Amino acid sequence: MQEQEQGAALLDVRKLSVLIKQSSRQKVRAVDAVSFSVGVGETLALVGESGAGKSLTAMAIMRLHKAQSMGVEADSIRLDGQELSTLSDREIRKIRGSTMAMIFQDPLSSLNPVLTVERQLVEAIRLHNDMSAAAARQRALELLDMVRIPAAKSRLGEYSHRLSGGMRQRVMIAMALAGNPKLILADEPTTALDVTISAQILDLLRELQTELGVGMLFITHDLHAVRSIAHRVAVMYSGRIVETGNVEDVFSRPHHPYTEGLLAARPHGSFSLDGHKLREIPGTVPSPADRPAGCAFGPRCNRSQPDCESQPPSLRNETGARTSFACYHPLKEVPA
Amino acid sequence: MDRQFWTYLGWRVLQSLVIIAIVIVGSFLLLHLVPGDMVDVLGGQRGDMDAELMATLRERYGLDQPVLVQLLNYVGSVLQGDLGYSYRNATDVLSLVLQRLPATILLVVCSVITAVFFGTMAGVIAARHAHRPIDVIISMIVLVFYATPIFLTGLGLVIVFSVKLKLLPIGGLITPGVDFSFLELVGDVALHLILPVFSLSLFYIAIYARLARASMLQVLDQDYIRTAYAKGLSTYNVIIGHALRNALLPVVTMVGLQIAELFGGAVLTETIFSLPGVGRLAYDAVFERDYPLILGVLLVCAFIIIVVNLIIDIIYTLLDPRVEISR
């Protein structure tokens, strides 16, 4: 797939930062000036370890971050041609759930325990569509059918605790679709589910995405999920994007040592006790509060040179390379 | 309401009967631990009673029998719907209690509603503006309510609103000697109830406010609240539609627990505002050693409290579908 032209991007984020207030004086840049875009009908996966800032990025776009303890700075966040960063809270509310919708990690805690599936679905539908209660109920049934919930009619009256994990996440997806969104932000939607269910949800999301032509920002730390669902991927490390490109390119020819390390840390195919060991990246992710001055990955990197400590490398596109990466000493051609 | 529900109800009624039996036996024995009986009080008041007359009186009222026999007699008559005879009032206990009950029920029900409504509202507003000036002000007012004893609140309210401002009646339930139409009567009773209800419920407003605030803060932090915001709901709709019902659960539990305390508080309030309720009846009965009357009041109140708690448990299952009815 071709790199998206800027004009056609559904979501275009420029230099988005999320600052967490540690005390009255100290602020920590948990997300540090990330830029990326998602095209119409495209899925961009945001990958990284816990604490890399993936979820915060999505929360900041939805403006669901905790305003009391967090601040968001951005040069621009454009969604479907509209600048979001300058909108008032009231205006962004109209976009939330309609133009952009979100799916969360834990479907049990994300559904209201004392309201029926119907109440929660119909509420989302009527909030963004001018519909009678009866029509909204009909639409709720359609949505449940769409997310492949069998016997949808009998599920309408159920409460979330009586549904299985996969079923709950399907309800969450149906709720996200209620406002006919153009962009879906999926924040680790399969992490809380077991493997077979997680595969089903991934299939469903991929099918829906093709069917409806929506753009998707898919947040995960599961590289297999990335491979099965995303067109492009952005690898995040300590609040910054370190490498981005088409999934095939990033997976087969990573240039950033961190991407390469991540890919190598995947378990491969068959499981053997005496076979090859799982490779791991030595050390841990620095907390945003004491991120090194230069490349954040520097201290853990086996290719680091003195110049890595000067200032953080910015994302660049080297001739011959098919991905953009933020590294002074990238891996050249690595056999896949 | 399916079969499971009726099984549950039957089971609860059975439990309630056991509790009532314990209340009867317990309070009967407790009262008999107190030295001196009704005849002693009568004799003391009249001063001219000789030992023979006292013995005759004791025999007539069965007071000369062993305690166990008296207990069995009492239980026997309660089972027949007879709560005994009040010597002091020369009426049977049940009709006396029933005659006083409406005023107390009116007082307690109005107080519970007032306390839950204002308490929850204050708590929700405080939680919504947590750690900001409004929250601090509400918390301070609530603390004052919490720390002031009922009798002090009652007397204070009477002095300010009845004596000084002459806005509200000083006591009683109905303005005497006036011929009211039904609507006027309702208005008159309401006017008379304002002060008693507030003096009884201020303390509980405080309790529910603190409870609702804490519970609301916890609920507002839940993932499903984030989901509600993600749908595009306004803060008001998120709080009313998604948070409040979850935050109310502990408040409802508390109401069940505090109904009993409210009856206790009603004794004080009814005395201060000279309301013709069960509380004052009990108060007078204690001073007059009218044992059958005290027992009757205890029994009727215990019965009401048990029924109210059953109702609250049922309300709870309606509010929270995760709570399944079972034995």
TrEMBL record, chain B:
Q: Which family does it belong to?
A: Belongs to the binding-protein-dependent transport system permease family.
Superkingdom assignment: Bacteria
Transmembrane stretches, by residue range? Answer: 12-34, 103-125, 137-163, 189-209, 247-273, 293-319
Query: Could you tell me which residue ranges the ABC transmembrane type-1 domain spans?
Result: 101-316
Q: What CDD domains would the database entry show?
A: TM_PBP2
Q: Which SUPFAM superfamilies match?
A: MetI-like
Name this polypeptide is given: ABC transporter permease
Its keywords, alphabetically, are: Cell membrane, Membrane, Transmembrane, Transmembrane helix, Transport
Pfam families, per this entry?
BPD_transp_1, BPD_transp_1_N
Q: What subcellular compartments does it reside in?
A: Cell membrane
Q: What InterPro entries does the annotation carry?
A: BPD_transp_1_N, MetI-like, MetI-like_sf
A GO BP entry: transmembrane transport
**What membrane topology is given?**
Multi-pass membrane protein
Gene Ontology CC entries for this record: plasma membrane
